[in-house]
Amino acid sequence: MDKFIPESPQNSESGEVSPCRSPSTPRHFRYRQPGVHFLSLVQSGENSRCSVSPASAFAIATAAAGHGSPPVFNNSERTCDKEFIIRRAATNRVLNVLRHWVSKHSQDFEMNSELKMGVICLLEEILRDPDLLPQERKATVNILSTLSLDEQEADAQLRIEDILQMVECPRSECFESLSAMELAEQITLLDHIVFRSIPYEEFLGQGWMKVDKSERTPYIMKTSQHFNDMSNLVASQIMSHTDVGSRANSIEKWVAVADICRCLNNYNGVLEITSALNRSAIYRLKKTWGKVCKQTKALMDKLQKTVSSEGRFKNLRETLKNCNPPSVPYLGMYLTDLAFIEEGTPNFTEEGLVNFSKMRMISHIIREIRQFQQTPYRIEHQPKVTQYLLDKTLIMDEDTLYDLSLKIEPRLPA
Q1: Where do the CATH 1.10.840.10 domains begin and end in the chain?
Q2: Of 152, 146, 149, 144, whose CA–CA distance to 123 is shortest?
Q3: Where in the numbering of this chain does the Ras-GEF domain appear (predicted)?
Q4: Angle at CA 262, nearest 5°, toward 104 and 162?
Q5: pLDDT in tens, 82-101
Q6: CB 260 within 8 A of CB 180
Q7: Cβ neighbours for 133, distance < 8 A, ≥ 6 positions apart
Q8: Is pLDDT above 80 for 366?
Q9: Contact at 8 Å (CB) between 20 and 67?
Q10: pLDDT exceeds 50 at position 16
């Protein structure tokens, strides 16, 4: 076996370093005395208390020949390579955890600036390590770049707080002056901003079904309220017209908006509009629906079939599976799934162990939600449209809508 290990040449005065040196070789083993063979090292390791680990033996065997006299190192660098290997392994594990955390759960750092600064300081400290290997340095720089990029994107994206402040602004546009495309795009933008603001912690423990749900799951409650407000706006806008033709035109326009939302993968927006059109106050208006064209009715049936709750939203699940983000799914579908798992599966097995099968099912659902949350839409914000969509002065409650419906088309005598 000795013939496979090159000897140090006699003319070692040149001191040239071979380019074949392994990059992961510990610094204090990069130079060896001439005439020392791999077998002799292993044999001496077997007969002594200070054994050489397989990793360092490999490093020595692959270290380049042709070095001159070894440089002078301090005592700490002459210690056993075990400490060096442990440090490198620990650094790699820390970097792997941070890389996964930053890439898969960026929301943690968006909502906690103290945590983010702590991680940045840790990464900068790792970069100052003189023994850091090239691949470790590259991984550290990549994680820092990801954190900086997330910060830039967060600054560029509209936040839910910015949107809610617009409610106080005066409305400058009316429904008739806005195109179906403008309405659909801004509805999609608003829906995604509200949807992506939900932290994944709120999906645990069915907090949205508790008495103190507003404290436990405030962002899920805001999402639910936003859905109801948008649906109420659609119904109120249709019922605000006194003549049949105008109401029919409004229905046709809202169906067109819903179809554009479908093209934008905003199935939450589709359901907001179709649920409004199916309210009893609007559904009962036979004269109004008689004025709606057949193409609009056929399109509405198609949209309703896509977001139907039949078969546990079978069609919607299949559609979401085949669409690429960005997308806004219907949150209620996932909340139903989580409630079904929480109530139907125990937290512990019969042996008293944690039921990891249940945890994996919950994790799978949250991972799917996060996938849709993390991919933003490239839609330009139009304040004039969002101000109209968020104007709560236009919204009528359910009783007012039904009373108005009875006035428009009274019940037929029995």
Answers
A1: 160-408
A2: 144
A3: 179-411
A4: 55
A5: 788 888 888 889 999 998 88
A6: yes
A7: 23, 24, 88
A8: yes
A9: no
A10: no
